Amino acid sequence: VSAPQMKQSIEVRDAISRMSPYTPPLENRDPEAFLLMDFNESPLPPPPGVIQKISEFLNSHVHIYPIYGDFLEKLGNYSSVPAENLLLTNGSDQAIDIIMRSLLENGEEAAMVQPGFQMYNQTAGTLGCKLNGPQFPADFHFPHQELKESVNTKTRLIVLINPNNPTGTSVSLEQIEDLLKSFPDIPVLVDEAYYEFTGETCVSLLSSYPNLIVIRTFSKALALPSLRLGYVIASPDFILELQKIRGPYDVNVVAVLAAHEQLNHPEHWQKMVRHLMDECKPAIEKYFDEKQVKYFSSKANFMLVEPPDVQQACKFLMENKILVRPMRPPIAHTFRMSLRMMPEMQCFMDVYSRYLNS
Question: Same structural domain for residues 31 and 116?
Answer without folding.
Answer: no
